Each structure stands twice: as structure tokens, then as C-alpha cells.
Amino acid sequence: MIDFRYHLVSIVAVFLALALGIILGSTTLSQSVTAELKKQASDAARNSQQLRQEQRRLEAQRDGEEQFAKTLGADLVAGRLKGQSVVFVETPGASNDSIEQLSELAKTAGATVTGRVTIQKKFLDDDQVGTVDELAGQLRPEDVTLPEGGGPYDRAGAVLAGALVTRDTARSGREDAGGGAVLNGFRQAGYLTTTGRPGQHATLAVMIAPSTPYQYEGGEIDNRALLSLAAALDGAGRGVVVGGPSTSAQEGGLIAALRDSDVRKQVSATDMVDTSSGRVVAVLALQNEIAGKSGQYGTGSGVNGYLPSPVPTASKSG
Questions:
Q1: DSSP secondary structure letter of residue 147
Q2: Cβ 167 vs Cβ 203: under 8 Å
Q3: φ, ψ dihedrals at 192, nearest 5°
Q4: Is residue 3 part of a domain?
Q5: Which of 6, 27, 120, 315 has a CA 20 to 30 Å removed from the CA of 141?
Q6: CB atoms within 10 A of CB 152
Q7: For residue 235, what are the domain limits?
Q8: 273 by DSSP, 3-state: which?
Q9: What does the pLDDT read at residue 47?
Q10: Would the pLDDT of 112 be above 70?
């Protein structure tokens, strides 16, 4: 007969064997897991190093391309806008650096820069829509036709465009009382400011898009208001290019809104105007606009390419 002591020893032996098995098994498992983790860490470190090297290579390539465009940009655009004049329209939130640098390049291309119109945020405020519309009606010169079925900003855009640009070469470079009254009226209302002599009626216009997309409530409406002005400038002059940084082609950006609208058919845009090469593209786009060709350029969604293709040729007459 087996006594209780035997049962106790047997049970203890079983548990000791089980414990020993668990210890041995966990040690083997731990070694396996540790080896796998070490391999993954090594792979991650190697991949990280490769990515850092690729990043440095791309940064060096970008810097080289920027230096190339900055050094040779003047030669690339020389004479392309000869005999033309350009007015710059600055939207709320646009980069002043982009305007200054593109303005200098336009002069290098042979164009005369008449001046700059800076649209104030007040122009886009919801509570100002009625006042903007009323002011446009009061200041409209007799030779400006308002668009049928258009909204307040379509009408205001037509009135402002008539004061800034022209297709008539005989009128280019000249100010008139009607255009002066329009700019003065909108300026006194706090809707815009001016520098230079933008009332001299340029043949071309460049609108600089906001650097930060309008992602607040009502931002889509503000973009449409600015696009109404861009379309009006195109209709009254020989062409318009909207320029902005890559962010302007992202959701809520003015160029993204342009490319999602019918305005893209008549107004060109480049979303790399904060780079030297992008500013060269803007000048090429202006040259194409003179010939009645519009396109979307840059790296964002909906582009025809980084630059016009084929690239317009330069001639002695611009």
C-alpha cells in the first residue's frame, strides 16, 4: 500500500519537473526573441542610415538645382516679356519675398512692372460682401461691362481689372481718371493698398497666392472671391499667372481651388514660385499667356508638367 509520503514526493517531483521545463523553455524562447529583436534593430539602423544618406543626396541635388536656376535664370528669361508690362496682385497671406524676386525677374525678361495691389483681408470678410458689391457698382467706369449672372466678387473683379490691365497697347502704360477713381475708392474703403503706379494699365498680371491654405470655415468662399478677380484680370488683359509655394496647391490652397475650377482653362498657375526655377517657370507661363496658352505647372496635383512643354521660344521682340 502506497503511503501519503510517497504521494507527496511524487507530486513535488512533478511540479519540480514542470518548473524546470518552464525555465528551460523560457530561456530558449528568450534567446530566440532576443536574437530576432537584435536583427530587427540592426535592419532599422541600416535603413535609417540609408534614408539619411538619401535625404542628404536629395538636399544637395535640390540646392544644386536652385543654384543653377538662380545663376542662369536671368539668361533663360531675357527678352521673353519685351514690350509687355506686369502688375502684381498680392493676396492676404502671400509671401512678399516671392513678389519681390519675381518682380525683378520680370524686369530682367524685359517687362515693365507698373506696381502692386495688395488685397486686404477686409475685402474677403463676410460682412463686407454687400458693401464691396455696392462700391463696385458706384465706381464702375462706362467702358467696363459687368458679367451677367455674376456674384458680388465677379462684379468687383471686373471693375478692379478694368483699372489695372488692358489688351489695348495704346492704353498700356497710361493712367486714366476712371481707373484712378476705382483704385482710390477701394483703397479708401480699406479693401486694398497700392505701391508704384498700378493704374498704368499693365498687359499682364501675376497674382501671388497665400502661403498658408485657407482651411478655416469660409476659406473656400474666400478662394472663389480671389479666383473671380484672377479670371477678370485675364479677361481684361493679355494673361494672368497665379503663383505660390507648394502649400498653395494643397487642400484649401488658392492654386488647388483654381485647378478644381473652370478658371484653370484660362488662368495659368505654378506652385513653385518660392524657388528660382519656379519663378523662371512663371515667366515662361506669362509668355505663353500672351500667345493665348494656359497651363498648370509645378509639382502639385493636376499639373501639366513642371514647366510648359514645349518651352516657348524667345525672340528679339519678346
A1: P
A2: yes
A3: -160, 165
A4: no
A5: 120
A6: 19
A7: 78-297
A8: coil
A9: 78
A10: yes
